Amino acid sequence: MSSRRKFLKASVITGAAAVTGSKIFALPKKIIKPELNNPIVISTWDFGKPANAAAWEVLKNGGKALNAVEAGVRIPEKGHSNQSVGYGGLPDRDGFVTLDACIMDHQYNCGSVMCLENIMHPISVARMVMEKTPHVILTGQGALEFALANGFKKENLLTEESKKDWQEWLKTSHYQPEVNVENKKAISKNDPMPGGIKNHDTIGMLAIDSLGNLSGACTTSGLAYKMHGRVGDSPVIGAGLYVDNEIGAATATGVGEEVIRIVGSHLIVELMRQGLSPEDACKAGVQRIIKISPEKSKNIQVGFLAINKKGEFGAYCLQKGFTYAVKNDKEETMYTAKSFY
Ligand code: SD4
């Protein structure tokens, strides 16, 4: 018998004797959990704060990052005071609210829905695509049928306010994505998002759990008054969201066409792999957009948010005004990203 095996055998016998032979050596009643590995959650825009709070409820109890990001982004999906995610989102030019969402875990599992209508929580449908189908993406009618078959309820997501705004827009039908969508509406008492939300857009959320695993989620009603059937970057794995558990994760907000062109979130994760800090990687992503579309980049917003495996985070954007929210056991903070212009 090797000396290591002899030692192990001796320890087991001694241990058993100690437990049965004397109360002094009785096993402690309290279950000792592995030490928490500093969970953290970060997310885009001012509505990231209440969303992070929901995610933190999962993380602080040792829950999985995947569960945290799903729970977190469901808050703005349900909130009807914001007009850029889920219920109450501004419709496309034909008056349909079409939702895009995706989710990704620490093992490269991912799921996505594109152009989904009448379902309040596209992120949960995306998760079901990931967990219950052999596919990554379901779109339009197929995504809706899958959701209904799995117990989701069909609901009208076009609120009176958003309908009025769309009818107003139809008078000119001028398509110009707004930079930093401002919330001009009074916050309703029944809204699950607390008041004071000034601006909002797509929510992208990234989290690290107590085991050190990363996950991300991204959900949006997309650009207001887009063409019917248009899909942005948000549900495109690699563009609106990417997670690599060895390196970090990134998410995007703003004009999706520009983000897709550079496969933004994947690019940022790869730049972090090469040693860039999250902020520098986001900045390099923004600079790539400027290089490709120098004129267009002056009048649109694109923002990136990233976190690395150590829990360091950062962001960068084209135009001033991109905010993001951070929550861990030490802080609950809103940051304003540095901008190129
Ligand atoms: C999209 N990136 O559909 C999303 C929407 C967004 O500013 O973030 N709007 O292109």
Structural class: alpha+beta
Please name the CATH architecture: 4-Layer Sandwich
Strand tally is 13
Strand order of the largest sheet: 4-3-2-6-5-1-11-12
* Overall structural domain count: 1
**Count of alpha/pi helices:** 9
Task: Calculate Rg over CA atoms.
Answer: 23 Å
How would a textbook summarize the main sheet? 8 strands, mixed
How is the CATH topology named? Answer: Glutamine Phosphoribosylpyrophosphate, subunit 1, domain 1
CATH homologous superfamily, by name?
Answer: (Glycosyl)asparaginase
Indicate the CATH class: Alpha Beta
What are the secondary-structure elements, in order, as H or E? HEHHEEHEHHEEEEHHHEEEEE
Describe the overall structure:
- The chain has 341 residues and is α+β, with helices and mostly antiparallel strands.
- It has one domain: 4-Layer Sandwich (Glutamine Phosphoribosylpyrophosphate, subunit 1, domain 1), CATH 3.60.20.30.
- It has helices spanning 3-21, 48-59, 65-78, 122-132, 140-149, 160-170, 256-261, 264-273, 278-292; strands spanning 40-44, 99-104, 110-116, 137-139, 203-208, 214-220, 241-244, 248-254, 302-308, 313-317, 323-328, 332-336, 338-339.
- The radius of gyration is 23 Å and the shape is globular.
- Mean pLDDT is 87; it is low at 1-23 and 192-198.
- The site of N-hydroxy-L-asparagine (SD4) has 12 residues, from strand 8.
- Residues 201-202, 220, 222-223, 232-234, 253-256 line the site of N-hydroxy-L-asparagine.
